Amino acid sequence: MSKYKRTFLKKRNKNTGGYAMSTPENMTEENVTTENEATGSADTVKESRMTVNMTKEALYDFLLFHAYSKFSGFLVNILGLAIVFLGIFSYTTGKVNGAGAALYLAAAALFLGGTPIQLKMRAKKQVVINKEYNSPAEYTFSETGIMIKQNGESRTYAWDHIERAVVTPKTIGIYYAPECAIILPKQDFGDQFVPIFTIIATQLGQSKVRMR
Length: 212
What we know:
Blueprint: E1 20-21, E2 25-26, E3 30-35, E4 42-52, H1 56-68, H2 71-92, H3 98-129, E5 137-141, E6 145-150, E7 153-158, E8 164-167, E9 171-177, E10 180-185, H4 193-204, E11 209-211
Helix pairs in contact: 1-3, 2-3
């Protein structure tokens, strides 16, 4: 029976919740050769690596995108703008005085500003207490999947388990579940941005990569 020097992907880790953050310090791109011992033939697998150090700014950027990409986030904005319009209309038609209009505007500010403020506070807290964000993580991207090494542990996500990728102003998010994503701050890609993004786009296809 022939044997192959290959590394197989682990099963998806069901215990990882929240957002698996990644902030990369760019590392060198490598060609990894696997050899079939029986035939002597060799296959070359291209890999790109980087080390991620999450920041509160990058995490906030992604959380904000995630919140407002859902219908609930869209609805909050609509309600906030509706209150502003109602307040202005009521004031100009004489239905409320200046104090009444101010109350409308205050209510609108709560709707429109509440979510960003909460997310900013959450991001600041998470980069301190969440072990997935508060220590460096090494990411390896290849044709087989994404391998993450952090705190002496490793896990691998096969491309078949990846649902989609999104590009925000400061990050690239790779969703492996509806509410779980690998977050890669753009500032940490360095000269590895093109190689890594090419692997992501090639493996997922254009239909699964959303540009903001």
